[in-house]
Design a protein that fits this description.
By secondary structure, the chain is an alpha/beta fold. The protein folds into 2 domains: about 150 residues, 3-Layer(aba) Sandwich (Rossmann fold), CATH 3.40.50; about 200 residues, Dehydroquinate synthase-like - alpha domain (Dehydroquinate synthase-like, alpha domain, Up-down Bundle). It contains 13 helices and 8 strands. The longest helix has 25 residues. It starts with 9 loop residues before the first strand and ends with a helix.
Length: about 350
C-alpha cells in the first residue's frame, strides 16, 4: 500500500484575510459565484464584493437554502451555468461549504472555501456530506481533489459563538489519537493509502497545540478578540486536524460519535462535542496510560467539552440504549475497525461506561 497525503492547494489564514479575497480568487477566474446563507451573506457580502470588484472582477451572489441536498446542488449548478461563473466561493459553515464543493465538482470549476467558524476539520477535505431536503443523512460524496483554496479570517472566526471554536477543539482532539491507532493497525486512510510520517506529525502537532493554547484561545474569543493563541487553535481545528484525519486515518472516536447519534438526548450537541467524549472512550478502549487520560480530561474540563454522559444531556443511564450506541459504533465499515486490535460492541459498551465514570 502506498503512503499518501492530500491537502488543499493553498491555505490562507489571518485577521482581515477576507478583505484580500479578490486578489486570491483572481488566479482562478474573473466571474465568481459566492454562496452563503442569509446570516453570513449579511456579515460578509459588502467586504467580499468590495475586494472582488476592486480587482476588476465581477461577482454574483446566491443564498444557500440551508441544506446540502442534491436538489440544492443541482439548483446552484444551473445558476452557475446561466451566469457563466468560472469559480465557486463557499462562505459560512459546513453545509454551505460542502454545497460549494459539490457545485464546483459538477461544474468542473475551482472552489475557494471561506469558513466563518472553526467548529470542524471539514473545510480542507475532499468530501461532502449530502442530506435529503428534509435534513436526513443521504450519502458521502467523495471528490478527486481537495479545495483549491481555504481562506480563514481569524477576526470573523473570533467573533463567532465561543461554543463553535470549542466544538472545533473537540473534533481536533481526536486527531492524534485516531492517527496513532490507525498507524499501528496499518489500515488505509481516507486519502486512499497508508499514512505518511508528515501527516502523523501534523496530527501530533494538532494535539500539542490544543493542550498549549486551547484554554487561552477560549478566553480570548469570550471577549470576541483574536490573539496568537486563537490563531494557533484555528489552524489546529482546521488545517492540522483536517490533514491529520484525512491522511492519517480515523478510528474509534468518530465511530463512537456516530453511535451517539442513536441517543436522542445528544441530538442538541455539536459534532465536536460528541467526538470529545468519543476520544475519551477510545482511550479507555485501548487502555491508554492514566496520565494521558487525565490530561485529556483536564483539557476538556478547562475549555468546556463534555467528559461524561450527564454533561451530554443523558440524565439517566439506559443500558439497553447504551448497548445500541456500542453496536452502531461497530457497524460494518465503521472506522472503529481501524483500531489495532479486534473491537466488539461489548468492549465499546464497557469503555463508554468507564469513560463516563472517569469523567464525572
Amino acid at each position: 500500500m502506498d503512503n499518501i497525503i492530500i491537502s488543499p492547494s493553498k491555505y490562507i489564514q489571518g485577521e482581515g484575510a477576507i478583505d484580500n479575497i479578490g486578489h486570491y480568487v483572481s488566479v482562478f477566474g474573473k466571474n465568481p459565484l459566492a454562496i452563503a446563507d442569509d446570516f453570513v451573506m449579511g456579515l460578509t457580502r459588502d467586504r467580499i464584493e468590495t475586494s472582488i470588484v476592486g480587482e476588476g472582477l465581477s461577482v454574483s451572489f446566491d443564498t444557500f437554502n440551508g441544506e446540502c441536498s442534491r436538489a440544492e446542488i443541482e439548483r446552484l449548478v444551473e445558476v452557475c451555468k446561466t451566469a457563466g461563473n468560472d469559480v465557486i466561493i463557499g462562505i459560512g459553515g459546513g453545509k454551505t461549504l460542502d454545497t460549494a464543493k459539490a457545485t464546483a465538482f459538477y461544474t468542473k470549476l475551482p472552489v475557494v472555501i471561506v469558513p466563518t467558524i472553526a467548529s470542524t476539520d471539514a473545510p480542507t477535505s475532499a468530501l461532502a456530506v449530502i442530506y435529503t431536503p428534509e435534513g436526513e443523512f443521504s450519502e458521502y460524496l467523495l471528490f478527486p481533489s481537495n479545495p483549491n483554496m481555504v481562506i480563514m479570517d481569524t477576526g470573523i472566526i473570533a467573533a463567532a459563538p465561543v461554543r463553535t471554536l470549542v466544538a472545533g477543539m473537540g473534533d481536533a482532539l481526536s486527531t492524534y489519537f485516531e492517527a496513532r491507532a490507525n498507524g499501528l493497525s496499518g489500515k488505509a486512510t481516507m486519502a486512499g493509502g497508508a499514512p505518511t510520517r508528515s501527516a502523523q506529525a501534523l496530527a501530533k502537532l494538532c494535539y500539542d497545540t490544543l493542550i498549549a493554547d486551547g484554554e487561552k484561545a477560549k478566553a480570548a474569543v469570550e471577549n470576541k478578540v483574536s490573539t496568537k493563541a486563537v490563531e494557533n487553535i484555528i489552524e489546529a481545528n482546521t488545517y492540522l486536524s483536517g490533514i491529520g484525519f484525512e491522511s492519517s486515518g480515523l478510528a474509534a472516536a468518530h465511530a463512537i460519535h456516530n453511535g451517539l447519534t442513536k441517543l436522542e438526548e445528544c441530538h442538541h450537541l455539536l459534532h465536536g462535542e460528541k467526538v470529545a467524549f468519543g476520544t475519551l472512550t477510545q482511550l479507555v478502549l485501548e487502555n491508554a496510560p492514566k496520565e494521558e487520560i487525565e490530561e485529556v480530561l483536564n483539557f476538556c474540563r478547562a475549555v468546556g467539552l463534555p467528559t461524561n454522559l450527564h454533561d451530554m444531556g443523558v440524565k439517566e443511564l439506559n443500558h439497553e440504549k447504551l448497548m445500541e450506541v456500542a453496536e452502531a459504533s461497530c457497524d460494518d465499515g465503521e472506522t472503529i475497525h481501524n483500531m489495532p486490535f479486534p473491537v466488539s460492541s461489548k468492549s465499546v459498551y464497557a469503555a463508554i461506561l468507564t469513560a463516563h465514570k472517569l469523567g464525572l
